[in-house]
Amino acid sequence: MKLEGKTALVTGGDRGIGKAIALRLAEEGANVVVNYRSSEDTARETVAEIEKGGRRAVAIQADVARLPDIDRLVAESIAAYGQLDILVNNAGIEKHAAFWEVTEDDYDTVLNVNLKGVFFTTQAVVRRWRELQQPGRVINISSVHEDLAFPNFAAYAASKGALRMLTRTLAVELAPMGITVNNVAPGAIETPINRNLLADKAKLDALISKIPLGRLGQPSAVAGAVVFFASADGDYATGETLIVDGGLIRNYHEQ
Ligand code: BGC
To answer: Crossing angle, helix 219-230 and helix 16-27, to 10 degrees?
Structure first.
């Protein structure tokens, strides 16, 4: 086990990629805080699965788009186990719309979770690490779209592009404190965020035809990359993005 004695907070840890990360961190020996926004049931199930495997887990409701929620989440997470070593900023949302139809509301919703949420959750945790003079690991779940254009998802792509620079900047600024900051950038993974796409066979086939490995990824593949950055294996990596996308972002062919 690579994370024995460690404690991790996973935002949006109740479902999809976040759930796989929470389970995997626990398998590696960590105690886990499973943050969720709206679905207490899925959070409880995730906690129960972790406990079944012999690790400790708690579910904490908080909307990372709201600063008072973030402060409470971080305080309660630290109170739960008396320590926090790993922050996984996983919570994220996307909204499909042509650029000229994006509303201010939709823009704010996406940016507030995907960027502001990561920014201030990390800030709240780093403030505690500073007080305690302890090192830490921050892992952000970004996307291939921190680099790759994503038509009809302009706000989402903008949030992930910003996340790339946030990670690079914080990696440098926080390195003297022994804090590493890295991104894991998934491609097309089978999760609830892809609900609409998965239900549309023509769209799904078109997407799969662009993925060199010829299939969608599983959430567990993303979780494995998170363990790398969270564990001793990844202790000299910072400011980095690890892409987990079946080759999607590198795909180019001439017929
Ligand atoms: C998005 C998915 C998309 C995938 C590949 C992810 O960041 O959340 O909706 O299918 O990138 O384009």
So the answer is: 50
Active site residue 36: no
Q: Give the integer Cα–Cα distance in Å for 142 and 73.
A: 21
Q: What is the pLDDT of residues 190-248, one digit of tens each?
A: 998 888 899 999 999 999 999 999 999 999 999 999 999 999 999 999 999 999 999 99
Could you read off the pLDDT of 135-192 as tens digits, one per residue?
A: 999 999 999 999 999 999 999 999 999 999 999 999 999 999 999 999 999 999 999 8
Burial 141-176 (b: 16+ CB within 10 A, else e): bbbbbbbbebeebbbbbbbbbbbbebbbebbeebee
What mean pLDDT comes out for the span 79-107?
98
Query: In this predicted structure, what is the pLDDT of residue 12?
Result: 98
Q: Is the CB of 18 under 6 A from ligand 1?
A: no
Ligand 1: does its nearest atom lie under 6 Å from the Cβ of 92?
Answer: no
118 lines ligand 1 (CB under 6 A): no
pLDDT tens by residue, 132-143: 999 999 999 999
**C-alpha 86 to ligand 1 mean position (Å):** 25
Give the global pTM. Answer: 0.98
Q: What is the pLDDT at residue 236?
A: 98
Give the gyration radius of the chain's Cα atoms: 18
Ligand 1 touching residue 191 (CB < 6 A): no
User: How far apart are the CA of 92 and the centre of ligand 1, in A?
Assistant: 11
Q: How far is it, in rounded angstroms, from Cα 82 to Cα 48? A: 21
Which residues neighbour 112 within 8 Å (Cβ) at sequence distance 6 or greater? 65
